[in-house]
Amino acid sequence: MDRARIIAETAARISRELNAAAIMVSGELSFEGIETGGIPVYYISMRPKSIIDHLISTGKDGKSPLKELGAQINREASGNSDHLQQAAAIEYVLGEQENGIIVGVVETRGSSSIIVHNLDDNPLVKAMKECQERIKPEVMSAIMKISFDIVLTGREGKKIGAAFIIGDSEEVLKRSHQIILNPYAGHDEIYRDVLDKRNWESIKEFAQLDGVFVVDEKGIIRAAGRYLDVDARNIDIEKGLGGRHVSAAAISRDTVAIAVTVSESGGVLRVYKDAKETICMDCMNPAVRYY
Fold it and tell me: 126: how many CB neighbours lie within 10 A of its CB?
C-alpha cells in the first residue's frame, strides 16, 4: 500500500472514530475510494512554505541544516496546526462549519501531518462568538462574509480596503461626520440590509469610498463614507497600519461597537473590540468540498 493511501485511510479512520464534522486537506492527497462514513472532505489552500523549503535554502548558504532540524520540525508542526486552524475558522465565518471536530491533513514538500482540531477551541472562532455577544450572530456573520469577499476579489480587479462599524450606531454617528454625501440617505431599509445578499454588490461598490460604514444592531446600514471623530492617542495596534485601522480601534474603545477592517495592501481581515485586535485573519481561498 502506498504512503499516500495509508495517510488518507488513517485520517478517515480517525474521523470516523471521533465522529468528526469534516476532513480538511491541504495538499493533493486523494480520498478517492476511501470510506469516510459520510464525513465530507474539503480541500484548502496549500501552506506557502515548508520545512524542506527552509532546509534547501539554508543548505544553499553553506550552513549545516541539521543544527536547526529539531527546532524547524517543531515550527513545521506548529505552522501546520495554525494553517488548519485558520482554514477551519474561515469555514466557520462562511457558515460551512459550525462546531465539532475537524481532522486535517496538511501536506508540505516531503512531509505530512494529521491534525485533530476542535472548532470550539479555535481562538478565532472564540473571538467571533465573543463579538456575537454584542451583535446578532447573523449580522456579524454577514459583515465577515462581505469583508472576506472584498479581501479575495477586491473591486474591478483592484484591491480595496474597507471598514465596518457595527452596533451602538447612535453613539457612533454622534462621534463621526460625513466626508461625502451619504449614499444610503433616504433609501428604504430593504436596500440597506446587510442580511439581504442582493445588497452585497452595492456594499462592495461603496467600499471603494473613503470613510467607514456604520451598521446598526439589526444589520441596517446607517451610512457609508463616514469619518470617525476619535482621539487615536494611546491606541496600540500593529505598526504600519493606516488611519482606517487606528480610528476603527479607537471607536471600539469609545463605544460598544465592533469594528471590522480590510487592509487594502495585505489582504488581511481584522476585528477590533474595546480597542483590542481580537481577530487577525490572512484570508485564503475558501475550501472546496470534494464530497
Answer: 14
Is the domain of 107 the same as that of 137? no
User: What does the angle CA 272 – CA 83 – CA 91 come to, to the nearest 5 degrees?
Assistant: 65
Q: Tell the residue number behind the cell numbers 475537524, with chain if given.
A: 102
Contact criterion met (CB below 8 Å) for 113 and 80: yes
- Three-state DSSP class for residue 217: coil
User: Quick one: 196 and 150 in the same domain?
Assistant: yes
* 77 and 29 belong to one structural domain: yes
Confidence of residue 72 (pLDDT cuts 50, 70, 90): low
Does the pLDDT value for residue 132 go beyond 70?
Answer: yes
Same domain, 60 and 171: no
- Whether residue 291 lies inside any domain: the answer is no
C-beta neighbour count of 206 within 10 angstroms:
19
The total of structural domains in the chain comes to 2
Q: What value does the mean pLDDT of the chain take? A: 84
Question: Residues 204-259: pLDDT tens digits?
Answer: 999 988 899 999 999 999 999 999 999 888 888 887 788 889 999 999 999 999 99
Which one, of 21, 80, 9, 47, lies nearest residue 289 by Cα? Answer: 21
Query: What mean pLDDT do residues 24-50 have?
Result: 81
8 A C-beta contact, residue 136 and residue 217 = yes
For 120, which DSSP code? Answer: G
Identify whether residues 53 and 181 lie together within a single domain. Answer: no
Report the distance separating Cα 101 and Cα 106, nearest Å: 16
For residue 262, what is the domain's CATH number? Answer: 3.40.1700.10
